[in-house]
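User: V-type proton ATPase subunit c''2-like. Structure?
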Amino acid sequence: MSSGSSSWSRALTQISPYTFAAVGIAISIGVSVLGAAWGIFITGSSLIGAAIKAPRITSKNLISVIFCEAVAIYGVIVAIILQTKLESVPKSLIHHPDSLRAGYAIFSSGIIVGFANLVCGLCVGIIGSSCALSDAQNSNLFVKILVIEIFGSALGLFGVIVGIIMSAQATWPA
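Assistant: Predicted structure:
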């Protein structure tokens, strides 16, 4: 066995599983909020620009901003769920395989949810931007593009579902 793989495996087993769990929870909420903010930025700037031509679009196109905000809420919900998965174990069982599995499960769940919501926020933001610009030109396009935006926001829910399924593996030793 090479010393490179040995040092990596040693590092991954010697770092506390609570550290991995905490980082996963932080990524879940932090990257989800980043995705929501990025989507709101994209949608909001187009909405304000298009509202100059057609002020009537402002109120009904705020739904695109709400879809982006839902992405942040998904991250908060999963972070709360992951936080409830943390359990205290005796110091002698910190590096037990079940503890490591639980820490890695929470970590990977947070990664999946965070990055799924980052991409979802971008997707919803771009579609929301297109919705605002299209609605300013032709009001008949609003509902058609809104349906596409709903499908885009479902991507975030898929990330939440996968994250919850993955977090079910987080069982700490008794």
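The chain has a mean pLDDT of 91. The domain at 19-86+99-167 is CATH 1.20.120.610 (Four Helix Bundle (Hemerythrin (Met), subunit A)).
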